[in-house]
Amino acid sequence: MSLFEHILEGVPDSIFAMMEAFAADTNDKKVNLSPGIYRDDNAKTWVLPSVQKAREILVADQNLNHDISPQMGNPDLVSVARQITFKDTLSSRIITSMQTISGTGANHFIARLLSDTLQPKTVWLSNPTWENHPKIWTHVNSAIEQHLYPYYDYRTSTLDIEGMISTLKERASRGDVIILQVCAHNPTGLDPSMEDWETIAEVCEEKGIFPVLDSAYQGFATGDADNDAWAIRHFAARSRGTMEFAVTQSFSKNFGLYGERVGVLHIVTRTRGSAAKAESALKTLSRAEITSAPAFGAKVVATILQDQVLREQWQEDLKTMSGRLRHMRKRLYDELIKRNTPGNWAHLLTDIGMFSYMRLSEDQLAILRNTFHVYLLPSSRLSWTGLTSRNVEYVAESIHKVVTLSM
Ligand SMILES: Cc1ncc(COP(=O)(O)O)c(C=O)c1O
Q1: pLDDT tens for residues 74-87?
Q2: What CATH code is carried by the domain that includes residue 335?
Q3: CA-proximal residue: ligand 1, atom 13 (nearest)
Q4: 154 and 34 in a common domain
Q5: Ligand 1: which residue has its CA nearest to atom 14?
Q6: What is the pLDDT of residues 137-177, one digit of tens each?
Q7: Which atom of ligand 1 is nearest to the CA of 185?
Q8: Is residue 255 situated within a structural domain?
Q9: Of 301, 318, 320, 344, which residue is the least packed, with the fewest Cβ within 10 Å?
Q10: DSSP string spanning 138-206?
């Protein structure tokens, strides 16, 4: 008998499952609208020109080696990561920053650290949220309760800010943790306004809730990395800079470095003493779990952000990516309106970033996949990255048929 026979089978991850199903589909009309990975208008993975150039510089460097990074990560990466995240607020706050295995690793490390130190009773997640948030917290400590705060209004496809605020006011306790996505919310594409962010920060402060600001799409939302970091800088500056919080930063999407696993965790503390303790705990954790973070992608990001010309190219690249997605939003919207497809599609134009919620039922999604070979996640999240000028009419026609068929 095998020692592994008693393992309980896990629930397959919907994104990876969908990618496998898509790869096995031999129909030449197939369209993959499920993964959050940027594709160009030919549905091909895009290496950002700024990344291409940085890669060439690194590879041509005779001194490029494969040494291990220091415990807190590649110092150049950590330095530029702090700068693009906090900008003007950097000098006024005490911030401990460590390179992590991308955004997932940053989320994991902060969950582990908070579970050990703050010992929250509850972690609050948006309804809905990135499907890995609950998995990471369950994996770290299944005794921490997970509650959803209202976020997406399923009737109107708008942000339920009143529901969110009143739920937190009524039900959250001092010492709870809240995960807040900074911009281009996954999976809904709905972000709070600046005014909403002020209210959210106020409630966190009043109630003593520890915010983890998950920043996976900086630059993707508006095409401008500064605009997209507004909420973080607001949290850093409010109440004369006394609020403690963490930021989990991913470079997967905004640099197209998905497989390189580049990320940074920032912890903003009130005192130097707590910063030193946080740093020591992170070093212990990192040593036991990963020893050292991956080097190459970190060098790519640092090379770009330290060089004026490459940095400007990167800003152009962000505009190219976010602009293409905005264009596809408009194209699909127009095609649905042209067909008088029943439903409220206005939000497709105002949602932000890679995703939108289509509010299609499980049955409709199954027909879309099995009959038309158009793949969305089971949650009805559509990733705009798979839409191109060549397939947008086919996708609109497929959605139209599925929606009208089931009426
Ligand atoms: C909200 C959110 N947070 C974090 C991540 C982490 O991504 P990665 O580990 O690829 O950097 C993602 C990726 O999809 C995300 O959508």
Answers
A1: 999 999 999 999 99
A2: 3.90.1150.10
A3: 216
A4: no
A5: 36
A6: 999 999 999 999 999 999 898 999 999 999 999 999 999 99
A7: 1
A8: yes
A9: 344
A10: HHH-TTSEEEEEE-EETTTTEE-HHHHHHHHHHH--TT-EEEEE-SS-TTT-----HHHHHHHHHHHHH
Whether the CB-CB separation of 315 and 371 falls below 8 Å is answered with no
- Tell me how far apart the alpha carbons of residues 56 and 146 are, in angstroms, rounded to a whole number: 45
The answer on 134 and 273 residing in a single domain is yes
Phi, psi of 323 (to 5 degrees): -65, -40
The residues annotated as belonging to the active site are: 130, 214, 253
CATH code at position 204? 3.40.640.10
Ligand 1, atom 15: nearest CA belongs to which residue?
216
335 lines ligand 1 (CB under 6 A): no
90-123 CB burial, b ≥16 within 10 A, e <16: beebbbbbbbbbbbbbbbbbbbbbbbeeeebebb
Question: Which atom, in ligand 1's list, is nearest to the CA of 101?
Answer: 9
CB neighbourhood size of 205 (10 A):
17
Q: Is 126 in the pocket of ligand 1 (CB under 6 A)?
A: no
Exposure string for 216-247, b = 16+ CB within 10 A, e = fewer: bbbbbbbbebeebbbbbbbbbbbeeeebbbbb
One-letter identity of residue 277: K
Q: Same structural domain for residues 292 and 357? A: no
Report which ligand 1 atom has the smallest distance to the Cα of 106.
9
In a domain, 117, yes or no: yes
- Answer whether residue 129 shows pLDDT above 90: yes
187 C-beta closer than 6 A to ligand 1 = no
